[in-house]
Amino acid sequence: MNRMFAALVVIVAALIGGCMVQDTKPLPKLVAVQATAQIPQNELLDVGIREFATGIPADKAADTEALAKLRIYPDLRKAETRYLPTLLRQTLESTAQWGAVRVIPQNAEFVDLLVTGEIVQSTGRELVLRITARDSAGRTWIDNKRYESLADLGSYKSTAALQARDPFQNVYVEIANDLLAERQKLTAADRQELQRLSRLKFASDIAPEAMTGFAAPDKKGILHITRLPATNDPFAQRIDSIRERDDAVIDTVNGYYSSFAEKIQESYGGWRQTSYTEIEKEDRARSSARMRTGLGAAAVLASILLPDQCAGDAYTCRNVQSAARTAGAVGGIAAVLSGIQKFSDARTHAESLKELSESFQAEVAPQVVEVEGRTLRLTGTAEEQYKEWRQLLRQIYLEETGSAESATAKVP
To answer: Is residue 230 part of a domain?
Structure first.
């Protein structure tokens, strides 16, 4: 019997220990490495950041209840695929280490450095991203690396603090510093070649028949330039003109992402702050529920298993002992019921978080932009529309040259 009581004590201690909720301490603020000297223009690499992948599990994509349990709300997550790359862009731009840094559609390419990502987890309390970065020569700078951080609680102190620094700014700083570390491994000649490769790959996409044999991979699969068009070649000049138009479209798209981020910053920041509070309440409610239920169950068992301490004819002792057992059982059952109520409270907090996310969705409606007389609807089909624009660029080239087959590049 004594062993049984000892076991109960161990169980209760385990329940109490397992239900502790740790307070999150303020995080140290990381800072992106800034340029200390002006970088030559022909070494500044342009960066394209594609919309992040949603990270929604394919087997649960149609099950909203299952996604809600994972704290994933599809429309909100779609908004994050556009918003989070914008925060990374702002971080990279702030360092003065790069050329043009843009957020681009999924099918946009021909950029010196292309960054892609996936949202693994995103709540007001935690952010987890997976990032990959490759340059135009085919080098992998970052290979599906996991970046994660808890929220910096200092950002939740006030609206001004939230606007001044994102709660997960450390994540973007780590990515920026990793990219810089990889760039510093390249020589000046390597960086200049990356710029030329991006230009040649763009030209090859517009006029593949005319652009052959200008680059070849080495034994490691890294592209290197084998020859270049003459700088005064009319063909090269036409391609450069067309690329300027394409850059203008990309700039417009990037401007859309910036406008979108500005529009939702306040409401999204408020959602994150509330999300953090709701998650903390839910966790504390669950912690309290486990402890109350465990202690209640232990009290019930203890009252049932209370050893008989009275002599056979000690009626008063037996009455007292019976009352103690009854009180213990009643108190234990009350504790169990209280624990069940706490679980109900936790579900209420989770439902509140879901409702907040659903109300936020109305504030991230699709936008449309006008580009040279063409309307691009920047939603899930933005990639198809950009593809259509790319086809239009090729038509412009054909109209200006007569035919792609007649265009030849003069090689020095």
So the answer is: yes
Q: What is the pTM of this model?
A: 0.74
Q: What is the mean pLDDT of each successive set of 10 residues along the chain, which is 412 residues long? A: 52 51 69 95 96 92 85 83 94 97 87 97 94 97 97 89 92 98 97 94 83 86 87 78 82 81 80 81 62 53 54 53 52 52 46 50 51 54 67 73 49 37
What is the Cα–Cα distance from 99 to 128, expressed in whole angstroms?
27
The H or E element spanning position 241 is: helix 234-304
Distance CA 304, CA 268 (A): 53
Report the alpha-carbon distance of residue 87 to residue 99 in Å, rounded: 17
| Full residue range of the structural domain in which residue 206 is found | 27-261+370-406
- Does any domain span residue 272? no
CA 18 to the chain's CA centroid: 30
Closest CA to 382 of 281, 233, 253, 282: 253
Strand segments, DSSP code E, in 89-214 are 101-104, 113-122, 126-135, 140-150
Tokens representing 330? 């009643």
